[in-house]
């Protein structure tokens, strides 16, 4: 799950829009460069052409946790650069729950879903919990891609210092640092940073209503148990990436 990198913050002629393709669950990897279209199923051909000197940017959070994704992306282009936005897995799980709750009124409580039988061990079969096991998912990718192909973006810093994190993304993609802190402002109503102007427009642009919604209250004891559960996985993730995300 990774978080939204405000795509508008990266818009410029070298960055081609990702196509919206017929979605076949996790079976289709959306938006490959046009040169591979011929080798794949007809869905690929819906892709826009990527011109020389352009970068095609595709954003599908679920790829990071999809077993088949590393092999398919590597088969398509082993040089693909991979950007993973991660946040504290406990907050991520609650955010995930808040999103499901907004679409499924009457959902059991967070606690009932997070622990087997509501009180037992942490239920790693629940996707909101499983997705936060970043070290495990990354292991799957590192079988095919070297660490140098990855950029890990801190979801927390994306909120506290959006220009800093977007700056790292621009460097990683070999783009000029066009977007800087003068492009962002803190919107007190939204409670998040927003762009002062959307590309081609003159009005400020915040992310939509589904980003940055209030979280349900989760008992402190539940949060503590989950934090303890994730600690060893987080440590492993810090070792693997060489980055301390400061979640513990
Ligand atoms: N600038 C800005 N504005 C609004 N929201 C921001 C921003 N930067 C990061 N975030 C965080 O993005 C979280 C939602 O991301 P999603 O997981 O829904 O994104 S995605 O659709 O999976 O890409 C969302 O999580 P929640 O707060 O749990 O809703 C935000 O915390």
Automatic annotation (TrEMBL):
Entries under SUPFAM superfamilies matching the protein:
P-loop containing nucleoside triphosphate hydrolases (SSF52540)
> GO molecular-function annotation terms?
[heparan sulfate]-glucosamine 3-sulfotransferase activity
What are the EC numbers? 2.8.2.-
InterPro entries cross-referenced by the UniProt entry: NST/OST, P-loop_NTPase, Sulfotransferase_dom
Q: Which residues bind 3'-phosphoadenylyl sulfate?
A: 87, 95, 211-215
Q: Where are the transmembrane segments?
A: none
Q: Does the keyword Disulfide bond apply?
A: yes
Name of this protein: Sulfotransferase
Q: Does the keyword Ribonucleoprotein apply?
A: no
**Residue ranges of every copy of the Sulfotransferase domain listed in the record:** 76-231
User: Organism, per UniProt?
Assistant: Lynx canadensis
Assigned keywords, A-Z = Disulfide bond, Glycoprotein, Transferase
Q: Which Pfam families match?
A: Sulfotransfer_1
Q: Can you tell me which family this protein belongs to?
A: Belongs to the sulfotransferase 1 family.
Name the cystine pairs.
194-206
């Amino acid at each position: 799950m990774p978080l939204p990198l405000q795509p508008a913050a990266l818009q410029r002629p070298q960055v081609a829009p990702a196509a919206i393709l017929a979605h076949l669950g996790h079976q289709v990897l959306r938006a490959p460069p046009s040169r591979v279209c011929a080798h794949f199923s007809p869905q690929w051909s819906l892709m826009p052409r990527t011109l020389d000197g352009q970068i095609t940017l595709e954003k599908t959070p679920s790829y990071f946790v999809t077993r088949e994704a590393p092999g398919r992306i590597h088969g398509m282009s082993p040089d693909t650069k991979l950007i993973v936005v991660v946040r504290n897995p406990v907050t991520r799980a609650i955010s995930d729950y808040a999103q499901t709750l907004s679409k499924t009124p009457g959902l059991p409580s967070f606690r009932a879903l997070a622990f087997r039988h509501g009180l037992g061990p942490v239920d790693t079969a629940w996707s909101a919990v499983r997705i936060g096991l970043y070290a495990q998912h990354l292991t799957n990718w590192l079988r095919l891609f070297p660490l140098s192909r990855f950029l890990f973006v801190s979801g927390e810093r994306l909120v506290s210092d959006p220009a800093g994190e977007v700056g790292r993304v621009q460097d990683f993609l070999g783009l000029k640092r066009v977007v800087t802190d003068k492009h962002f402002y803190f919107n007190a109503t939204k409670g998040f940073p927003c762009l002062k102007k959307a590309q081609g427009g003159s009005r400020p642009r915040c992310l939509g209503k589904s980003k940055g919604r209030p979280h349900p209250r989760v008992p402190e004891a539940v949060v503590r148990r989950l934090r303890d559960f994730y600690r060893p996985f987080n440590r492993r993730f810090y070792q693997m990436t060489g980055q301390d995300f400061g979640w513990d």
